[in-house]
Amino acid sequence: MAAVKLGISLRHAYGRGDVTIAALGKPIARYRYALLAIALTVFVWAPLTYPGYFQVHSGFVPLFNLLHLHRTSLDPHWVPSIATHYDMVRGDGLLAYYLARLWMALGATPVGSVKAVFAIAWVLGAFGVYWWCHPLLGAPGACLAALVYSYLPYRIAAVYVRGAWGEALCLGLVPLGMAAVSAAYPPTSSKRAIMLSGLIWLLIGLSQPGLAVWAFLCLLGWWALSDGRRSRLPRLLAAGGGCAGAAVYTLWAAGWHTVADRVGFFGHFLYPAQLVSPYWGFGPSRPGWNDGLSLGLGLAPVALACLTLLLLVWGIRTGQAFPSSGERMSWRSPFLIAAILILLTLPLSAMLWQLSAIWQLLTYPWQLIGLAGMFLSVAAGGVLHLRPRWRTPPMQTVLIGFVLLASYSYLQPRYIGQELPTRPRAGWGGHQILLLNVNVEVEIPPMAAGLSISTSGRLPLSEYGMPRPGDTLHLVLTWQATRVLERDLKLFAHLLDASGNLLAQADPFLGAASDPDAPGKDYFTSRWEPGRLVVTDVAIHVPDDAPPGPYRIALGLYEEATMQRWPVDDVPDDHIILDLSERDIL
Q1: pTM listed for this prediction
Q2: Single residue among 350, 385, 410 that ends a domain in this structure
Q3: Under a CB-based contact definition with an 8 Å cutoff, are residues 228 and 186 in contact?
Q4: Is residue 516 pLDDT above 60, yes or no?
């Protein structure tokens, strides 16, 4: 009898377990495509999990300012000021810093916090495109569109090459803003949908103000080309209010000021060949067609969008009825908006930029490629909507695999193993070039070093002590450029006595015998890539008849042709002084 009762109890227990599993399985099955789209972003953000930071054009500047924000008490007027001139329109917005500061408060490292912001941007972008496209294209098409957008080469370059974390966050939030405003059947009540639209666009405006204005113009175009404009108008107005609120807050926090165009906006238009080029590089953007940066639209977005266009044309010519979805979409919208954005990156649009003065919202015209890629991704997802018989698991696997493999080779950032300094030692030329670390070593003769073989060695000055007459000092300097340097600079290192008298000097070209890829070869400043670490070794001999120390070294930069010294940033002088005492040597 007891065994029978036990069996009945077990059956009831297992029965309840089956019900629980079934209850859990229903939402998983319902949202499987959304979960798949988010899960498959793992390959694009997986490089962020590697230890250390990576070489990007922005260098360590975001990390310096994040550390500064972390050490600063809650100040609503804080803006990035370490090794940068904050551009309240074209620069990275404040939202990325606020999010990273929150991660640091939770115990994350500065590098980990910056990486977390990048990862959040990718996940939000995938979710936003899926939410936006699901009513238009169905779940399979929305999943494909989300993955195409996640693996957009421009977005990969924005993170792993440029380090533009404000722009990366903006491109992750914009699809959410598009979905919140354009959805015909918002998931919440009307008032909540209006508030949600305003909040999302407020965050977009705080992430990258200039690009946010362009994103809102794209939203206006999408709204104008869609049906049901009247029902979406309150959410559109709320979105505009959110952008305006972000502008007001940024103006209040930073104060009104302008930053001059530092790169030459009109010299950076793209050539059509660049839009379809498979080239991938880590170099900076330079005027002309021979750009060191990859600015292509990507194989997957272009190929799948063209396939969608062919299916549409074929269907119209044959009178084929297109599959219906929960919400009707004007197919011309993604193609037309993407085409306009692409045309604005070409030289033929220069007059329009000049007449409208809208070029002052962006640093480069090619920054519109990210938004154009978003609309091409929507068009690419139409492949599975227009061909329902391609929604079989094998065909979906082929399409998703094509999207991932088309950009997989780009997911190879250049990692930096060097320890992160808390701030640069100095900067020159409006923070164009930064001195990150200074190490002073003393050359030790074999006998003095206590070595049994005929080799020379070095000791850090912190271990050697005060330099003496007859010593040879080696200045091991770590540099990082934040922008393209147009000329080869020379370094002067002047050894001074306690009275400031010149004892010895060295004036090498900066980067002589310092090529990171070819040790011993020259790597002068006109070839430096923004963000790349360059270590130079400068030798100075203390004269035998020099008075005893202490000694100091004056460091500065100048142009050989004019002998004009570059001013040191934030210092009313043209050089920095390095006191050769143990406490001052890093």
Answers
A1: 0.89
A2: 410
A3: no
A4: yes
